[in-house]
Amino acid sequence: MTTPTPTWTETALQYLSRMLTRNEGAIAQASAWCADSLAADGLVHTFGSGHSRIPVEEFFPRYGSYPGFHPIVELSTSFHTQVVGANGQRQAMFIERVPGLAEQVLANYSFAPQDLLVCFSVSGQSALPVELLRGFGERGLRTIAVTSAHPDNALAQAADLVIDLMIDGPDAIVSVPGVEHPVGPVSSFLYVAVVNEIKVRTAALLAERGAPPLVLVGARDVGAEASRAAFDAAYAEHARRASTRLAGS
Predict the structure, then answer these.
(1) Stretch 196-225: mean pLDDT, rounded?
(2) How large is the average pLDDT for residues 148-159?
């Protein structure tokens, strides 16, 4: 079997190094904003449609994460495993481009002044993430865009802070001889790195303030009973914060 040269991993690591170096200041600022929000009993809302829902789940509720990050994902734009037929990919891609849906999503929430949004979109052009970020801004809340900040990127233009993925060409990064288009997208890899940089730095800032977060930890690490207690405590804290933001609650 012929291995492409360079491999996907080699190329992706180059993208990662460049992205982290260029965005050090923005990631530090985003972490400080998140720590300020969580320390003030706020929520850091996270949103992505399509495959950009992946970093939303990476923020919370996976192992090594903690409450305060509030995932907002619309199933109609992010359910990919059917591919074709009912709930298929065509419908999901169509729906996220339809203007007006974002306000219907936002209508479910009553936000607090200390809340903020981290919004993910590689292109920064689909109607749903762009309008949702603008909706947060119109409500006087801070917004962070994690995207590729090319000149026609509406998401980046509307955000208070931009973390630039620096994907200047196609998302797929490896050209394979005999294959017409590049293979192997890099955006999810970069997304996850950004999320965990922010998550770790925010935890450190909270610990410095004497308010360490309630981290989800596995039974393999601390035993079944301690793991269950950690999950229950984190879920209860998430429910406490999130329930105050549901419109009508």
Answers:
(1) 97
(2) 93
**Amino acid identity, residue 146?**
V
Residues with Cβ within 8 Å of 242's Cβ and at least 6 positions away in sequence, in order, are 43, 70
> Is pTM beyond 0.90 here?
yes
Distance from C-alpha of 229 to C-alpha of 240, rounded to nearest angstrom: 16
Q: How does 149-166 read in b/e, with b if 16+ C-beta sit within 10 Å?
A: beeebbbbebbbbbbbbb
The answer to whether the beta carbons of residues 144 and 116 sit under 8 Å apart is: yes
Distance between CA atoms of residues 215 and 227, nearest Å: 10
Q: Per-residue pLDDT averaged across 199-209, rounded? A: 98
SS3 (DSSP) at 143: strand
Is residue 52 within 8 A of residue 96, CB to CB? The reply is no
**Which residues lie below 8 Å from residue 38, measured CB to CB, with a gap of 6+?**
44, 68, 202, 206, 211, 213
- 155: nearest Cα among 174, 175, 178, 132: 132
Q: What is the mean pLDDT of residues 80-93?
A: 84
